[in-house]
């Protein structure tokens, strides 16, 4: 008699624990389904460290943002209405350093096919530079602009590209075939002439920076 009671108690206990583990298993499974799967993986342009999107200015989760986070494609490219808004944003957030005609100033020109960071030839890479920053004055823009606003700025930058169509790697092959490049800004021509001088200045600044770091390390 006593044995039977024990057996029943044991069975009840077994049933309870298996139900608990089953339900907790289900919770984990549904949580995994709900979590957004970030494909592709976005990384800092210099360090390669994966970008943490929990920081940064939050905005509306637009179709363009959602599409971009999954595919790395900017659906705003060649959309005239968005490009106009993107131009305004560019003038406020970027032109001070990159020039009013994207011709380059403190920061490099963004409408030619030369890239310090070649990953900028694709929209995923351009976004990584803008969102998470590069060297020196090129700070991360994640607190200034929402992801959607960055995509708008990017569509403006792409729209004023004046270099060879075959280097417009952010476009599909068909789009490249029909691309009519924008006019090269007069200031860029001038900037080309000054490029050698700027390069020397940049190298001097880099050297000053590394000397400073070396000095700091030595005095620590
Ligand atoms: C305070 C000055 C400053 C502002 C503002 C600024 N940039 Fe920059 N940007 C720079 C500098 C300097 C560099 C060069 C950094 C380097 O080589 O690592 C740079 C580099 C870049 C590059 C990489 C270019 C290449 O050839 O690889 C991109 C793209 C870029 N900036 C886009 C933007 C956009 C878009 C904005 C506005 C949302 C912006 N920047 C705002 C100074 C600035």
- The CATH class of the domain at 63-194 is Mainly Alpha
By DSSP (H or I, 4+ residues per run), the number of helices equals 8
CATH topology of the domain at 63-194: Cytochrome Bc1 Complex, Chain D, domain 2
Bound molecules: heme C
How far apart the termini lie comes to 79 Å
* Structural class determined from secondary elements: mainly alpha
Report helical residue fraction. 55-70%
Q: Which H/E pattern describes the elements?
A: HHHHHHHH
* Average of per-residue pLDDT values: 87
Strand content: under 5%
What's the architecture of the domain at 63-194 in CATH terms? Orthogonal Bundle
- Overall form: globular
CATH superfamily of the domain at 63-194: Cytochrome c-like domain
Number of strands: 0
Biggest β-sheet description: none
- Indicate the low-confidence ranges by residue numbers: 19-29
Regarding quaternary structure, what we see is: single chain
Based on CA atoms alone, the radius of gyration comes out at 26 Å
Structure report:
The protein has a domain at 63-194: Orthogonal Bundle (Cytochrome Bc1 Complex, Chain D, domain 2). It has 8 helices and no strands. Mean pLDDT is 87; it is low at 19-29. The chain is mostly helical. The protein starts with a helix and ends with a helix. The protein binds heme C. The site of heme C (HEC) has 23 residues, from helix 4 and helix 5.
Provide a quick synopsis of the model.
The protein has helices at residues 2-34, 63-71, 80-93, 95-98, 123-132, 147-159, 173-178, 186-219. It has 220 residues and is an all-alpha fold. Helix 3 crosses helix 6 (147-159) and helix 5 crosses helix 6 (147-159).
């Amino acid at each position: 008699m006593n044995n039977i009671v024990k057996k029943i108690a044991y069975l009840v206990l077994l049933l309870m624990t298996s139900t608990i583990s089953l339900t907790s298993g289900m919770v984990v499974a549904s949580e995994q389904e709900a979590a957004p799967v970030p494909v592709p993986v976005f990384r800092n342009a210099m360090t390669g460290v994966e970008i943490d999107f929990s920081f940064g200015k939050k905005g509306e989760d637009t179709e363009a943002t959602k599409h971009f986070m999954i595919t790395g494609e900017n659906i705003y490219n060649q959309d005239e209405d968005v490009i106009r808004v993107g131009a305004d944003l560019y003038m406020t957030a970027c032109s001070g350093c990159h020039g009013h005609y994207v011709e380059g100033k403190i920061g490099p020109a963004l409408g030619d096919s030369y890239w310090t960071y070649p990953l900028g030839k694709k929209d995923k890479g351009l976004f990584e530079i803008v969102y998470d920053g590069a060297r020196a004055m090129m700070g991360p823009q994640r607190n200034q602009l929402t992801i959607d606003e960055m995509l708008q700025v990017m569509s403006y930058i792409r729209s004023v590209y004046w270099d060879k169509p075959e280097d417009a790697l952010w476009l599909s092959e068909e789009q490249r075939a029909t691309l009519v490049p924008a006019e090269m800004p007069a200031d860029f021509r001038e900037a080309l002439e000054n490029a050698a001088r700027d390069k020397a200045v940049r190298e001097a600044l880099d050297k000053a920076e590394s000397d400073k770091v070396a000095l700091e390390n030595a005095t620590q």
